[in-house]
Amino acid sequence: MQGSVSNALRAISFLGKIPLSTAALLTGGARFPRRDFGRVALQCSALALIIVVVVNLLVGAILAFVGAVQLIKFGAGVYVADLVGIAVVREMAAVMTAVVMAGRTGASFAAELATMQTNEEVDALEVLGLDTVAYLVLPRVFALTLILPLLYVYGCIAGLSGGLIVAVSMMNISTPAYLDRSVEALTSVQFALGASKSLFFGALVALTGCYYGLYAERNAAGVGLATTGAVVSAIVGVIALDAIFAFCANALGV
Amino acid sequence: MEAAGTGPVEGHANVPATDEPLLEVRSLVMRFGETLVQEGVSFKVEVGAIFAIMGVSGCGKSTLLRQVIGLLQPAGGQVLYRGTDYWAGDIAVRTKLRSGCGMLFQSAALWSSMTLLENVCLPLEQLTKFDRGQREARAAEVLGWVELEKFGAYYPADLSGGMKKRAGLARAIAAAPPLLLLDEPSSGLDPISSKHLDDLILDVRKRTGAAVVLVSHELPSLLAIADGGIFLDADSKRPIAHGSPKELRDHPEHPTVRAFMLREDLPAQQGNAPDPNRREQAKSSK
Questions:
Q1: Of B271 and B90, more confident
Q2: pLDDT tens, residue by residue, A55-98
Q3: Is the pLDDT of residue B4 over 70?
Q4: Most confident of A201-210, B11-20, B212-221
Q5: Which of A116, A129, A219 sits opposite B98 (nearest CB)?
Q6: In the predicted model, what is the mean pLDDT of residues B241-253?
Q7: A121 contacts in chain B (CB < 8 Å)
Q8: B272 pLDDT more than 60
Q9: CB A219 to CB B126 under 8 A?
Q10: pLDDT-based confidence at B17, cuts 50/70/90?
Q11: Which of B146, B144, B148, B122 is nearest to B135 (CA)?
């Protein structure tokens, strides 16, 4: 019980340092490693694109399969485009991209920072008087928060393409008909909702990875535990946050 | 109980004259949670001295060093840099005081994503107003002092243990701090590399005039370079001897000091049985 309270206080303290360090950065009171930012941005964008596209393509195809079975019974097979389009753009592209990034980049952040902690590299930064949150955490948080919405766009395209492939190849729906239905079903509000969710998911995944990494125990097992904790917490957090978004969107009639 | 590192050496142009000791530790108390590690730790380090923190494994030597540099807050007592209490000041004061220290960590703690040159340049970027050219020139100079001038473009993973230690020393001295803290500088090194590092430490003191506080188990190193010191006891959890390693070797008054310095077995009543508190301390320190 005492451990849980102290962990919660530590997490709150960590979150409190983010705006303080951001303010210090903006006022020139902290150092921002631009090269690290570039490296991390590359790591979580171009190098992650293939896996994001593949996962979302398959999710779109699976949605089309599942939807088609039910819709064909009612002679409404063409509406599979509506089902896939809305599900992908509003929910699945953002969630699946965030889950992939939690397993890939969030884990990498946790492992990298935990290893730095074990090797006393974080202490060496503190001895210099560097703001370690500004130096180590903010580049990662900024990079993933900015990149995840871009990956979400690719995820949407891949998911819609997966649905299209199934619809055209197995349900004899023409490509123009599928695209027409998709355009009709999708609105800019749904796209904006998905994109804004991915912003928050990006920040959540990055913060979780950095938190577990920075507070890892200083041994090899600690690196493993930090990585596992970061991935599990980020995935649970993404789904919980998505549920909150769904609740709010429903309440707002979006 | 108090001890002082002995006199200054020539050539310490970076250290302004002052009446206050460069570093003074007063009645420091170290704890991990409820577990007492050490108490009543007091010593002074004068400009240009090489001061050794000695003791058996688990007695709190590295913890003391981390409290001196400000990485851990002591449970009691004071750490004073030229008379200014480190922990009594706000974060700006502490950062300023800490900028006068360079530290070589036990693992060298080189930043693995940076080359050696970048590792040495970062303290200069943070602590000096040098432009990029000046920083790189100074970094190349100190890498030359530790005979790594040809390895500036290498990453830490490409270096041997001894080279990492030397690179860590170069990083610690780059901004010419008046106080150097060295945590087990010779650990894991072969005798030749260890001797080489000892010579480098003496050379750095001669070049910069920096005072050095080092934690070490290596008797040959301690005897070769330290001119003052304190011996921490894990059983009584207090310092049990003060003086240079040579003095402690030649006139060991406490049985533990004698056993340490002369590589003898401890008398039976001293007890080598595992101390549960020490085990807890080791666990907490992770």
A1: B90
A2: 999 999 999 999 988 898 888 888 999 999 999 999 999 999 99
A3: no
A4: A201-210
A5: A129
A6: 93
A7: 109-112
A8: no
A9: no
A10: low
A11: B122
Would an 8 Å CB–CB cutoff place B128 in contact with chain A? no
**CB spacing of B95 vs A129 below 8 angstroms:** yes
Closest Cα in chain A, distance from residue B111 (Å): 6
C-beta contacts of B80-89 below 8 A and 24+ residues apart = B80/B20, B80/B21, B80/B23, B80/B24, B80/B25, B80/B26, B81/B22, B81/B23, B81/B179, B82/B18, B82/B20, B82/B21, B82/B22, B83/B20, B83/B21, B83/B24
- Asked casually if ipTM beats, i.e. exceeds, 0.90, the reply is no
Structure tokens at A134: 């500004």
A234–chain B nearest CA distance, Å: 25
Q: What is the CATH number of domain B1-100+178-185+211-286?
A: 3.40.50.300
Q: Decide if A127 and B103 are in contact by the 8 Å CB cutoff.
A: yes
pLDDT of residue B34: 86
Which pair of tokens denotes residue A88?
């992908």
Contact A119 B109 (CB under 8 A): yes
Radius of gyration of chain B (CA): 19
Q: Is the pLDDT of residue B285 over 80?
A: no
Does pLDDT of B12 surpass 60? no
Using a pLDDT cut of 90, give the percent of chain A over it: 83
Residue B15 has pLDDT above 50, yes or no: no
SS (H, E, C) chain B: CCCECCCCCCCCCCCCCCCCCCEEEEEEEEEECCEEEEEEEEEEECCCCEEEEEECCCCCHHHHHHHHHCCCCCCEEEEEECCEECCCCCHHHHHHHHCCEEEECCCCCCCCCCCHHHHHHHHHHHHCCCCHHHHHHHHHHHHHHCCCHHHCCCCHHHCCHHHHHHHHHHHHHCCCCCEEEEECCCCCCCHHHHHHHHHHHHHHHHHHCCEEEEECCCHHHHHHHCCEEEEECCCCCCEEEECCHHHHHHCCCCHHHHHHHCCCCCCHHHCCCCCHHHHHHHHHCC
Take residue B86 and report the two structure tokens written for it.
Answer: 């480190």
d(CA A222, CA A101) in angstroms, rounded, equals: 21
Residue B174, number of CB atoms within 10 A of its CB: 24
Q: Does A6 have pLDDT greater than 80? A: yes
Nearest-by-CA chain B residue for A115: B112
Kindly state the tokens that stand for A26.
Answer: 């903006």
